């Protein structure tokens, strides 16, 4: 946290303790079990209206965060993520409305049967309760997460980045207004004001209050979670994403996919970080890198540097790095086996892609590459809740239990057994 952010918090006296805040959120989560889906959907529409009404204040708060960010020397990527311009603001509001339109998931019977003794058994979809989220400095995540949680009848505690605190609080105020207009307690969506690291550790230990913590971030956050969290969590970790360009593939298609995955938004977790190229197409594909990856710094192995003349030497560290920038590590491989072996060694289990014309290679890649998403002949940038039809995502899970990949409404629920009898007793 930068020094200015600390001052900002210190001037905000008399903050209730985190446990007090969490206790109010927990109570609010019970209210959500008493209202129906239509009321929750109406609350989302009210949230969108209030966001729109508060646009000027929210964008002003964002300018203030950006100014503080500039003074604390945030990187270009961090500044880009923090920026909420007019277009991004409207996309954020549209996202809330898109989630509102999604079908109801709460109360859905995912499985139902009657036993020979006449007992009726159902598995019914239910909310998790209170969701906690620690997330990066992208302010739209505040609205996305709030919308998904309200729609799925979860209360949510949002611990965003200190870099975005003013914007998050302004968004949170508008959302609370929307909830209250719709007759729901504002505490259903609570932006945590304390953005200190100590506060984050306390947040990870809110047992009895947080039912599921979703940490979105890089290795430092994930380490802190592993060391300190005592609440159950679903890790949404960093994306060291690869694209493998196979022999015999459509080279023009491969160029478009690689350029999109690297350049369209390099600062996000589903952007490509390493390119693996089959040796049979290395000359043809890599010789054209300066034109289709203009502005991208290439760090390549010896073979790559034969074709990309201004490429720097790639180190082992480069292959392990999520650059989140206009930098790409490149390696020429002998075959699919070598590509898969490289991915197994360096992947963070987020998103991995192959460009190929060979059906068998595609099938092998789908089966043998262990990641939350495997992509064939498309950009890794599609691994996004909105793009995959979930309306939005609360994060992209890189772990295997409970949920994997972009987490939408279903991932914010679990099932409970509902057993109905007629005076049945067990003998
Ligand atoms: N899989 C997914 O869904 C997503 C993955 N990511 C990944 O996140 C990273 C980019 O975001 P970036 O802003 O750099 O992420 P960081 O990991 O630096 O920050 C994310 C959040 O974690 C907090 N945090 C970071 N380190 C610690 C720590 N040691 N203890 C407690 N809290 C901590 C930050 O607080 P503060 O900023 O106040 O320091 C922030 O709120 C990339 O690796 C990207 O791939 C991002 C979003 C989604
Ligand atoms: N949802 C994003 C990607 C996932 C994400 O949250 O990325 P990040 O900007 O690293 O926080 C998108 O593709 O637009």
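Q: What amino acid sequence fits the structure above?
A:
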């Amino acid at each position: 946290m930068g020094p200015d952010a600390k001052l900002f918090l210190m001037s905000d006296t008399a903050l209730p303790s985190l446990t007090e805040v969490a206790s109010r959120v927990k109570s609010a989560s019970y209210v959500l079990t008493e209202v129906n889906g239509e009321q929750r959907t109406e609350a989302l529409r009210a949230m969108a209206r209030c966001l729109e009404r508060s646009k000027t204040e929210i964008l002003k708060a964002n300018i203030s965060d950006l100014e503080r960010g500039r003074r604390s020397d945030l990187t270009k990527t961090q500044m880009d993520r923090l920026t909420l311009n007019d277009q991004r603001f409207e996309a954020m509001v549209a996202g809330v409305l898109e989630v509102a339109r999604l079908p109801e998931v709460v109360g859905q019977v995912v499985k139902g049967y009657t036993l020979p003794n006449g007992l009726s058994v159902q598995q019914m979809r239910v909310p998790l309760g209170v969701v906690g989220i620690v997330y990066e400095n992208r302010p739209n995540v505040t609205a996305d997460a709030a919308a998904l949680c309200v729609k799925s009848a979860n209360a949510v505690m949002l611990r965003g980045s200190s870099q975005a605190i003013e914007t998050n609080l302004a968004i949170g105020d508008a959302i609370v207004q929307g909830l209250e207009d719709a007759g729901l307690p504002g505490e259903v969506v609570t932006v945590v004001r304390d953005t200190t690291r100590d506060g984050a550790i306390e947040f990870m230990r809110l047992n009895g209050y947080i039912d599921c913590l979703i940490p979105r971030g890089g290795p430092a956050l994930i380490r802190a979670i592993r060391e300190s969290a005592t609440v159950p969590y679903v890790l949404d970790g960093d994306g060291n994403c690869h694209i493998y360009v196979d022999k015999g593939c459509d080279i023009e298609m491969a160029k478009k996919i690689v350029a999109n995955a690297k350049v369209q938004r390099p600062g996000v977790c589903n952007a490509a970080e390493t390119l693996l190229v089959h040796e049979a197409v290395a000359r043809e594909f890599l010789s054209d890198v300066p034109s289709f990856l203009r502005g991208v710094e290439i760090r390549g192995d010896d073979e790559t540097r034969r074709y990309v003349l201004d490429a720097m030497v790639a180190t082992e560290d480069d292959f392990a790095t999520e650059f989140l920038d206009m930098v790409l590590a490149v390696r020429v491989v002998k075959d699919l086996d070598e590509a898969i072996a490289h991915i197994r060694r360096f992947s963070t289990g987020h998103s991995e892609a192959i460009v190929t014309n060979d059906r068998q290679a595609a099938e092998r890649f789908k089966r043998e590459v262990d990641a939350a998403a495997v992509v064939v002949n498309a950009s890794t940038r599609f691994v996004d809740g909105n793009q995959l039809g979930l309306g939005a995502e609360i994060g992209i899970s890189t772990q295997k239990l409970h949920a994997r990949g972009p987490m939408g409404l279903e991932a914010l629920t679990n099932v409970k057994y509902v057993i109905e009898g007629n005076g049945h007793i067990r003998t």
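Q: And what stands out in the fold?
A: The first strand starts at residue 109 and ends at 114.
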